[in-house]
Amino acid sequence: MRPLKAMELLAVWEHGLNQTLLERVLALLTAACPEIDSEAINGLSIGERDARLLQLREWMFGSRIVNTARCPRCTERVEWENRIADIRIQPSPITPSPAEFSLNVEDYGLRFRLPTSMDITAVMNAPRGDSTPQDLLKCCIVSARYADEACDPGSLPEDVLAALGCRIEELDPQAEIRIELTCPQCAHRWNVLFDIAGFLWAEINHWAERTLRTVHKLASAYGWSERDILNLSPVRRQLYLGLINQ
Ligand SMILES: [Zn+2]
């Protein structure tokens, strides 16, 4: 994996304008990970994918994350700040985890794999339209046996699925980033789920709009091409912008 150049990031952003969030972040990783083919990117577990997104975010916009959440008790808007190192569990670069795992619960024996972006898409696009977290778990079961006889993964009891859910969380801890918060207004304590995919794409959106405005100003003032301007370091672009406004 490597950092993206301004030109490459703009291309991914532009291409992603009509895509879903999932397609956008997978395209981002495909561009940043030339050593892995796009099928393997799609097959990364959610935690592996998000660990890579955290690394990209650090390279693009630094290691500090500032976000806000609303207190569920008094609705006060609470700002929180974290360093990427504090929320990154898996080391980077990450080697993809083994394809399959096994779990025995009571008389059930399961072979399963970790949920991927593709599984989430498949479950969300299910024709019934009322998908549950259990559907995602069932989607990851490769084979199921009961008392040594093959059985239907769709008919597993809830406690077996719950045990599978716990095991998947243990094996892929980066898949769910939770931030502990305390409300300064009412002292309520709770935790929020942090979605690096949505957060990073919103930042890329702002960055792209800012960058295009900068290109416009520099091109108008100096007659340089878009490529030349994007090839300048961000520091130089800022300095030249400052000179125009003098
Ligand atoms: Zn509060």
Helix content: 40-55%
- Overall mean pLDDT stands at 91
Bound ligands, named by name, code or SMILES: zinc ion
Task: List how many beta strands DSSP finds.
Answer: 8
Radius of gyration, rounded? Answer: 22 Å
Q: Provide the structure class.
A: alpha+beta
The helix/strand order is: HHHHEEHEEHHEEHEEHHH
Oligomer: single chain
As laid out across the biggest beta sheet, the strand order is 3-4-5-6
Report strand %: 15-25%
Q: What's the domain count? A: 2
Low-confidence spans: pLDDT under 50, at least 5 residues? none
Measured between the Cα atoms of the first and last residue, the distance is: 40 Å
- Biggest sheet details: 4 strands, antiparallel
Q: Count of helical segments?
A: 11
Spatial shape: globular
Write a structural description:
Helices cover 49% and strands 18% of the residues. The protein is an alpha+beta fold and 246 residues long. The protein has two domains: 6-93 and 177-244, no CATH class; 101-171, no CATH class. It has a four-stranded antiparallel sheet. A two-stranded antiparallel ribbon has the order 1-2. The model has no long low-confidence stretch (mean pLDDT 91). Bound molecules: zinc ion (ZN).
